[in-house]
Amino acid sequence: MALPEDDAVRPPRRPRAAAPAPPSAAPIDAQVLERRLVGIPVSPGIAIGPVFGASEPRAEVVRQKIAAADIGSQTARLEAAVLQSRKQLQKLRARLGVLPEASQAEIAPLIDAYLQMVGPSRLVRGARRRIGELLVSAETAVMDASEEITTAILATPPADEDPAGRERRAEEVREIARRLVRNLTQTPFRSFAGVPDGAVLVCESLRPADAALLDPARLAGVATDEGGADGHAAIMLRALGMPAVLGVAGLSQNARPGDTVVVDGAAGVVTVNPTPLTLAAARRSVTAFARERQKLARLRRLPAVTEDGEAIELQANMEIPAELPLIAQAGAAGIGLLRSEFLFMNRETLPDEQAQLETYRTVIEAMGGDPVTIRVLDWGGEKDIEALQSEGVVPEVADQNPALGMRGIRLLLRRTDLFEVQLAAILRAAASGPTRVLLPMVTNVGEVRAAREVYDRVVRRLRRRGDRLPDPIPPLGIMIETPGAALSADALALEADFFAIGTNDLAMYTLAVDRGDSEVSALYDPLHPAVLRLVQFATEAALRMRMPVSVCGEMASNPRLTPLLIGLGLRSFSMNASAVPRVKQAVRAANIDDCVRFARRVMEQSDPERIKEMVLGVPVAERPKAGAE
Ligand code: PEP
Ligand code: MG
After folding, report:
1. Which residues make beta-bridge pairs with 178?
2. Strands 476-480 and 499-501
3. Nearest-angstrom CA–CA distance, 79 and 71
4. Model confidence over 547-566: pLDDT tens digits?
5. Portion of the chain with pLDDT greater than 70, in percent
6. Residue 405 domain flag
């Protein structure tokens, strides 16, 4: 992601959109000719409207030394700026109440993180220390402290964080430093008060805090010179459902206030001064997009049944609790895979039984009677968890071959103390609603038997302790995500209460392709006949035993794969919440007999290319990756 300029430190690279040249100064072609600028598609939808450029005066700062006698007054200035920043952020937090619930869920955690940073944070402490020890002005102290912290964040990444996550954390620190400097120098913030209805906001960059102030009912869309798809501003624009394209180089030089622009948030294109032809096409796209959205929203209340009346269960996967409102909005019938790893991440110590209980209970209660499948800790592979290392559960140095090492159920059976705490928390939370327990990375029946012994032992202990447990106790199921498990599915079906087929790892282990390695990503193919045969074998083993079986890997979220999976006998799918409406649409268009015939034809094929052509229905060269839509 291109980082927004720290305007407190460096001059801006280009003139600002809001400082327009007089019309006569613009080149002739800039006044009349259509210009098509390409950026990063960030939030889908089409916006057509006049450009609104929200101007923001630059905070001018010179780095300054101070006399020892001024330490007190500079510290007092810093404290006043901290207080003012906190009040501004609290006001912003209170304003979130007017946004749709899903947007609030996305934006509130960021504003809370900002609020923490204007508390007793490293940034504020560092700035205070610099004033006293290095004798610099409050502005200089804030800028230098911010630089030191962001350099440290970017230089020593924790093993479990991707580069985009590090950039985001660094940007949060820069953002608060900029706010403090703005307040110290009393430079006004950008104002959105005068945005005309239906305008398109065009500016060099957008702060996440700015995005939180945008009113989706008034503003048609957003386009900026800087920014990328992974930043907080992008996440917020998506949460607000506002068409947006970021990172459009040269945009603010080309689009002047008052110009008409078309923002295509799906294609990542901004057209300035569109011709009548372009405008007409854009208007048609607006109508088509609105119709599609309405259709998908209407689906929320419609049942997931095939054209010939067979019910299909569509559930959501959940990685963090902030997804709960989205899951409810998507019309998912419960949670088919709660990846409990989030409880163990970004912390030094392991969560105890009470902390886990509260989280599970919140999720189960939020589902209001729809079932929740909680997968016990699946550590390993690419999922590094600091707390496990600092508490000595796993070695600080990773296995040579982590995907094949001590991961998933193997670790839990080695460290039954950890396993028992988690099972106890789940069992107690299960008194609040229908719950299932899911074991990750199973490869043989011995593991299921051993896990059930631990499970039964925890049940007995809790009953002795007088805890309220559901009767019967939650079913204990297993992930089918290794070829070993898939090929022993008939034996495993005698031990487990249900199967959840994890096609992500199943494809990885079957094809010997690391799912996170871009070098071999072209070989990662969930539609490879070997993977499909394993899915079929495991599904049929479960169906013979009349045992529940679902797919919870990414394959479940691609509506083009829905007919094939239904044809293989599957009736339950769990996917990211946003995929539920489209998959429901595919379910409602499907006919069981047709699906069965189609699956039979697909399973006769041994050529992966032919299978992809049949299932995805597009020429090989234009094909999207299976599992992603
Ligand atoms: C899978 O492997 O398909 C799965 C659902 O588990 P995860 O993606 O969490 O490894
Ligand atoms: Mg997995």
Report:
1. none
2. parallel
3. 12
4. 999 999 989 988 999 999 99
5. 86
6. yes
Asked if the model's pLDDT at residue 568 lies above 90, the reply is yes
CA dist., res. 46 & res. 51, Å (int): 14
Catalytic residue at 232?
yes
Instruction: Give CA 117 to chain center in angstroms.
Output: 23
Q: Which residues does 333 contact at the CB level (< 8 Å), separation at least 6? A: 304, 313, 314, 315, 370
Residue 466 maps to which CATH number? Answer: 3.20.20.60
- The better pLDDT of the pair 167, 7 is held by 167
Q: Is the residue at 250 inside a domain?
A: yes
Q: Are residues 321 and 445 in the same domain?
A: yes
Does 571 reside within a domain? no
Does the beta carbon of 16 sit less than 6 angstroms from any atom of ligand 1?
Answer: no
- 202 and 138 in one domain? no
Q: Which atom of ligand 1 is nearest to the CA of 553?
A: 3
* pLDDT of amino acid 15: 30
Is residue 146 a part of any domain in this protein? yes
Ligand nearest to the Cα of 516, by number: 1
12 pLDDT tier (thresholds 50, 70, 90)? very low
**Distance (Å, rounded) from C-alpha 351 to C-alpha 374?**
16
Same domain, yes or no, for 72 and 53?
no
pLDDT in tens, 468-527: 999 999 999 999 999 999 999 999 999 999 999 999 999 999 999 887 665 677 788 999
* Confidence band for 24, pLDDT divided at 50, 70 and 90: very low
Range of the domain at 229: 35-57+190-271
Domain of 257, CATH number, reads: 3.50.30.10
Per-residue tokens: 151: 């350099």
- Using the structure block, give the residue that is written with the tokens 């920014």: 227
In the set 203, 232, 528, 595, the catalytic residue is: 232
Whether residues 178 and 194 share a domain: the answer is no
Q: Answer yes or no: 528 catalytic.
A: no
Burial (CB count within 10 angstroms: exposed 0-12, middle 13-18, buried 19+), residue 504: middle
Residues 6+ apart with CB under 8 A from 517: none
Question: 400: which residues sit within 8 A by CB, 6+ positions away?
Answer: none
409 CA to centre of ligand 1 in angstroms: 13
Q: Of 7-16, 196-205, 477-486, give the range with the top mean pLDDT.
A: 477-486
Distance from residue 555's CA to the centre of ligand 2 (Å): 12
pTM to 2 decimals? 0.63
Q: How confident is the model at residue 229 (pLDDT cuts 50, 70, 90)?
A: low
What's the mean per-residue pLDDT of the chain?
Answer: 85
Number of domains in the chain: 3
Probe target for ligand 1 pocket from 318, 442, 481, with the most ligand atoms within 8 Å of CB: 481
Of all atoms in ligand 1, which is nearest to the CA of residue 552? Answer: 5
Residues 379 and 450 in one domain: yes
